[in-house]
Amino acid sequence: SRLRAICLLVIAALPTLPCSGAEPVTSNNFTAPTARPFGKLPDGRQARLYTLAVPGGWQATITDYGGIVTSLLVPQADGEPVDVVLGFDSLDGYLAGHPYFGALCGRVGNRIAGGEFTLNGTTLRLAKNNGPNHLHGGLVGFDKQLWKATPRLSDKGPALELELVSPDGDEGYPGKLTTRVTYTLTPDGELWVEMEATTTAPTVVNLVHHSYWNLAGQASGSIVTHTLSAHASRYLPLDGGGIPTGPLADVAGTPFDFRTRPAALGDAIAALTPSPEGAEKGGVDHCLVIDNWQPDRALRPAVTLADPASGRSLEILTDQPGIQVYTGNYLDGSLTGKADAVYRQHAAVCLETQFFPDAFNHPAWHADWPSGRLDPGE
Predict the structure, then answer these.
(1) Is 286 a catalytic residue?
(2) Residue 358's pLDDT is what?
(3) Catalytic hit among 171, 190, 315, 352
(4) How far is CA 182 from the centre of its chain?
(5) Residue 352 catalytic?
(6) Element of type H or E holding 267
(7) What is the pLDDT of residue 27?
(8) β-sheet with 285-289: strand ranges across
(9) Catalytic residue selected from 136, 210, 226, 362
(10) For 143-199, what is each residue's pLDDT tens digit?
(11) Which residues contact 314 (CB under 8 A, 6 or more apart)?
């Protein structure tokens, strides 16, 4: 068996769009993904941008550079489709540096405390690219790699298969790691993100998809009026560096209680600014523990994000035990994205399904939760 991570993102656009017919859409009605040049890397290699489009007006564009979802268009009953993810119009914006807009993060997404872990008695040291800690795979993580892309059609809709071979010792991680990710778009407004990896030597893996969501539109300015509901009764408290302290905590009576009714993200941000824990910029940057998780690869509902003004909502289902909620606390207006949108603080929210952050360094979790270890043959 392989290490596998599956995430299903379901977007609803209200009012309901008129249906083109009673018959279900089959693969014969889908259009194969198209590709066009997206710019060149400093070494001269060509990056490409792939468009996945389905009946009803849903459209996703994904580049083989970093596996980045550069846009996701949601149809409206009256008007032009709305792009609900932050990003740039060209490769140059991504090459200039960005906070993982839409990217695939690995080998280990999120943070590793002190930039090190011990595996089979050997302490492995990684880049410290987030203060004293390692973040999202290091200096040149999967988000900065050119993946091998194969567009195809599936029974669900157009798909893009991406493959990346990370050599033994890459960014300090042991083992040659082969990672495959498949994005699939369906006419029901679903974006499937399926990830798997195999290794030649014991290593650690925590693959993460990192889109920044604003359901009012990527240029609309803020998500503080968005609401979030979560199937999560516990969360992971953090130290001052954003590293989990260890014990899982009950969300009752905290700003992380999104269970009983949708809660405005602005309320949670205000309650955590200045932050009593975690990042100095305040706001939410915490992992919620998904209720009733089991290692059975079944998709379970994690969160629902909604924009009351537009009526759009996003539901995320996953086979992972945690979901990191990050409210764009470090966006500061220095980046200008698509349609000349200036991305200021809280311009979007990230909802990252994953193993718990720094899981390998918390052996007390390993009896009940995945450690992230991957061995040959798995």
Answers:
(1) no
(2) 98
(3) 352
(4) 14
(5) yes
(6) helix 265-271
(7) 55
(8) 212-213, 349-354, 322-326, 285-289, 234-235, 249-250
(9) 210
(10) 999 999 999 999 999 999 999 999 999 999 999 999 999 999 999 999 999 999 999
(11) 9, 10, 11, 12, 84, 213, 215, 304, 305, 306, 351
